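[PROTEIN RECORD]
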Amino acid sequence: MAHQTLARRHAEFAANLRTSDIPPEVRKGALLHLVDSLGVSIAGAAEGEESGAVARALAKKWATPEGATVYGVGSRMRPEMAALVNGSMAQALEMDDKHGSSLARPGSTVVPAVMAVAEDRNASIADALTAIVAGYETMIRLGFVARDRFLERGYHTSCLIGGFGAVAGVGRLGNHSADEIVSALGIAGTMASGIQESTRTGSTSKIIHGGWGAHSGIVAMDLASAGITGPESVYEGKMGFFQTHLTPIKGELEWDTAGAGLGSVWHLLDTAFKPYPCCQLMHAFIEAAKQILVDMARDRMDVAAIEAIHCKLAEPGLTLVTEPRERKLAPELRHEARFSLPFVVASALLYGDIGLESFSDDRLSSPTIRALAARITTAEDPESDYPAHCPARMEVKVAGRTYTKHVPFHPGSPEAALSPADVLDKFARNTQWLFGNRAHDTAEALLEIPETESVALIVTLLGEAAATSMQRA
């Protein structure tokens, strides 16, 4: 048998995947990831968020009478534009799901693309879930090829590979042939982009990374359907995706891992739900801070007496959340603060937790947070197993005592997984601004809609919950 390119293997998997091929627990997991993605999109579209203002401005500019819904805003757009906005909102507050070692974030790329096309075509929930599974499994496997090497170069891995996952999902939803999906994957390679400089400097262009992947996937599939052809060697080719983005390539690329287990191993189940609205690199540090606060309370130690804090984490994440130091100590924008280890650790120690309220304007300008953040030093952790996990090592010195914590698994990882109830609670917190006291009931209702129903029923349910909340207000 002739050697198959990775694009061909991914395309044939997506084209041939059927609802009956997917185990019940995987379909159930896909639905939970769908609900989570809807919730984080709605959170990003909140009127009080920087990203919410962007969503409303674009809704006025790009509105159409038909198409797909922009969650949290209610306007409709062409599917590819709705996917761009919904995916951007899903990534805006850093709460979209993420697969560990592949660095894929399919909840802000695959889900918005599939849902926009599914709504526009009046597809069933069953077909949408099958497409979501195809997209997750493709995107995650593609992330295995290089793992964290894109990040080392300054690229945002999830944005780079998001379009490929979206192609697989949209290709499955539209019953496209493997040949068409191969071409669309090749076209997506031309669109692949995403740099991390905005994360380092505090600008907000990174929030569009999820949306761009979703948008690119839809457009690439449309172009392939219209007759544009893409290179089947998009991944392995001399001028293909990996060679152009990673040359000179360090170490061996994991081609076999990226194509293994399609249809039998389901990596969607290993994809982490994020509990906190900030960069996942810092989630274990939030847990470490909580544990240290318990120990300090036992010893009757006051947070105000903290003298020094030392945090250790792996590169390239260390640089991402600690440099440039002057900006990380005093972030000016909410988005900037979500990537500041000093700000997040200081906030967690002072307030006991991190939530949406942690990034309010008052918190950003708090002299108390800034003073404690200034006592934080950092170093590289040579023992970290990143990117498989995002562990934390933290040391806090208080009045002559030293408190040390090692949190090996970030919250949401398979070893520290969020339960379905946790995910529903997260949805309720994220959507309370829109649904009020109906937020939790809405989450439960979404999980109970029969798969035979149309995706339009999901949109209707969201709209009715918002309308009822507004009437009560």
User: Anything to note?
Assistant: The domain at 280-413 is CATH 3.30.1330.120 (60s Ribosomal Protein L30; Chain: A;). Residues 125-146 form the longest helix (22 residues).
